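Following up on my earlier thread - several people asked me to post the actual chain instead of describing it. Fair enough. Here it is, all 216 residues.
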Amino acid sequence: MSNILKSTKLDIALVKPYFKTICFTLLLPIVFAAINRSLLTGVSFAMCFIAMTTGYTFSITEKNSMDRLFGILPVRKSELVIGRYVFVLAMGLLSLIISLIVQPLVLKVLGETVGVFDIVTAAIAGVFLFALYTVFQIPGYYKYGSIKGRVFMYIPVAGFLITLLLITKIPDGESKLLFTVINSPVLLMLLAVIFVIVMYVVSILVSIKILKNKEM
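Reply from S.P.:
Thanks for posting it. Predicted structure:
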């Protein structure tokens, strides 16, 4: 556990010069939510943007030829991988919390009603979409690197556009009907969390296998 946390701290140090840029990316979804008057689309946009920053650590490592440094560190490759996932998840969770606090406030100032249902729906969608983006991105970066694997950066963009299209096609009444069928927002959230955990476990195992087969 200690080595995993050290690996996470190392990633934080690598990305620290870009924190201002990352924070700026959270402002654009607020504007997007205000224009569309929708917390769901605003949070989805925010998680899309943050997922795109996943490649920062890979890009910095590759540009500065830090693979050899990682290779001589007294840390197992599995710990390096898990540490990076912890860093990515921490970034996603922090972004989600900020979005769920700031965006509803902005919408309320604009006269929109933001209820518990809206916040729960946006939270579930944000968690699921961020997971869906990153579970494919990270193994892709490990496999092909930040340059060749740049195509994986566009997974969040494609995912967000598809999500936005689906959201605009589903009437508000039908989205609430989904919760009625499931019978409980808590149950829906629980199912989403379980599914997300399974996706990350598989993604981590794949990333570990890829890194172990690479020369460092």
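The radius of gyration is 18 Å. That should answer part of your original question.
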